[in-house]
Design goal:
The protein is built from 9 helices and 2 strands.
Length: 147
């Protein structure tokens, strides 16, 4: 996995005068207790920039909010939580993949991940990797987009 530790948003915060560690948050992905009880759809609806956002922008925001809701205070996912998210939130893409060597290799890499926790970038790379090896993606590609 990529091993990046700071998001672009974190880097921007620190480069714009927010470099004082006592005032800057350790991560912009750290969950906030009040958001944990609010549904993802309500959180999306509350983001003004997404009210006229594209489907792709809303999808990316959904990834970020789902990750944020599940991560620990440091903005990381433990391996067990990551596996749980794969099964509960990404099941249509993981279903039936257990026998595929590519899928088993991805899960093996998750188990061998040296940091024991995944940051947002690592988790997104895992999701993308599973997506491109999934049978469901082939079904998606086969949908006709024109009449």
């Amino acid at each position: 996995m990529c091993g990046c530790t700071h998001s672009t948003q974190d880097q921007l915060l620190h480069s714009e005068g927010g470099s004082n560690p006592s005032t800057a948050p350790t991560s912009t992905l750290a969950p906030r207790k009040m958001l944990k009880s609010v549904s993802i759809s309500k959180q999306l609806a509350s983001i003004k920039a997404l009210q006229k956002g594209s489907d792709l922008e809303k999808a990316m925001a959904t990834f970020a909010l789902t990750f944020r809701k599940a991560c620990d205070p440091d903005g990381k996912l433990g391996k067990a939580t990551a596996r749980s998210l794969l099964h509960t939130q990404f099941g249509a893409f993981t279903e039936g993949q257990e026998t595929k060597p590519e899928y088993r290799e991805l899960l093996s890499e998750l188990e061998e991940h040296t940091g024991n926790k995944l940051d947002f970038e690592d988790f997104m790379i895992l999701l993308l990797s599973i997506t491109v090896t999934s049978d469901l993606l082939q079904d998606v590609w086969s949908i006709k987009s024109t009449k």
